[in-house]
Design brief:
103 residues; 5 helices; globular; DoxX family membrane protein
């Protein structure tokens, strides 16, 4: 496990916890983006699985790929709602994930 994987894993683990808890602001964002209520839990599950795979020897690339696809979805949601300034953090994660998958 390298430090980049550790940073990525903890970022997505934190996001998974927040999405699973589902405070009103998070629920409102998913609704604003047009997603059904259950989708937040699905996203959290994918975040959790991808993060765990980043810790698993031999499955790190798969975990990074799963999280990369999820991050593309996050970026698409921001783009559709014209939330351009919110794209910075996911773009950094996308870069880190892409370098991880390509390695």
């Amino acid at each position: 496990m390298n430090y980049v994987n550790l940073i990525i894993a903890f970022a997505f683990l934190a996001a998974a916890i927040v999405n699973l808890i589902g405070p009103p602001a998070i629920r409102a964002e998913f609704a604003k983006w047009g997603y059904p209520g259950w989708f937040r839990v699905t996203v959290a599950t994918v975040e959790l699985v991808g993060s765990i795979l980043l810790f698993a020897p031999g499955a790190q690339r798969l975990g990074a790929l799963i999280l990369l696809v999820l991050t593309l979805g996050i970026l698409a949601s921001f783009a559709r709602s014209k939330e351009w300034m919110r794209m910075q953090y996911p773009l950094v994660l996308l870069f880190l994930l892409a370098t991880n998958v390509a390695a």
